[in-house]
Amino acid sequence: MEIFVVPDMWNVLAQWGATLILFLVIRHFVYKPMNEFLTKRQNAVVSEIEEAEDLLREAEDLREEYRDKIQKARKEGADIIEASRERGRDLEKSAMEEAKAHAASMIEKAEKDIASQKAQALKEVRNETADLAVMIAEKLLKDNIDVKNQDALVDGLIEDLEKNHV
User: Fold this and answer.
1) Which residues make Cβ contacts (< 8 Å) with residue 161, sequence separation at least 6?
2) pTM, whole model, 2 decimals?
3) CA gap 49, 2 in Å, rounded
4) CA–CA separation, 107 vs 137, rounded Å?
5) Maximum Cα–Cα distance for the chain, whole Å?
6) b/e map of 11-50 (b: 16 or more CB within 10 Å)?
C-alpha cells in the first residue's frame, strides 16, 4: 500500500465521475419515482382529508336537518295531542249539551204526559161524578128529569166539586 500526499487525479476524477453517475442513476431511478410517489401520496392524503372534511360537514348538516325534523315531529305530535284533547273536550261538551237537551225534552214530555193523564183522569172523574149525580138526583126526585135540567144539575155538581177538590 502506498500512501501519497497528493492524491492521484485520475483516481479522484474517476471517483467523482462514478459518484456523479451513481447520483444520476439514483436520482433517475430512485429519487424521481420516490418523489413522484410521495407527491401522489401527499395529494391523495390531502384529497382524502378534504373529502373527509366535506363528509363531516355534510354529516353535521344532515344531523342538524334531522334534529330540526325531530323537533318539528315532536311539535306536530304535541299539536296533534292538544288538538285531540280539544276535540275530546268539545265532544264532551256537546255530549253534555245533548244529554241536557234530551233530559229537558224527556221532562217536557213527562210533564205533557202527566198533564194529559191528569186531564183524562179529571174528565173520567167528571163523567163518573156526573153519572153519580144523575143517579142521586133520580133517586131523590124519583121521576125523570129532562136533559136540560140534567145538564144544569151536572154542571153545578162539577163546579162544586172543582171548588172543593181543586
Assistant:
1) 125, 129
2) 0.41
3) 61
4) 43
5) 195
6) eeeeeeeeeeeeeeeeeeeeeeeeeeeeeeeeeeeeeeee
Cα 8-13-15 angle, rounded to 5 deg: 95
Q: C-alpha cell of 24?
A: 444520476
Residue type (1 letter), 148: K
146, three cell numbers: 129532562
The one-letter code for the residue type at 4 is: F
Taken in order 42, 44, 47, 53, the sign of the CA dihedral is: negative
Closest CA to 145 of 160, 157, 163: 157
Apex 26 CA angle, 21 and 29, nearest 5: 120
Q: Cell numbers 128529569 correspond to what residue? A: 145
Whether 16 has a pLDDT exceeding 80, the answer reads: yes
> Residues of the chain with pLDDT > 70: what percent?
87
d(CA 166, CA 163): 6
Helix (H) / strand (E) containing 108: helix 32-141
Cβ atoms 154, 130 nearer than 8 A: yes
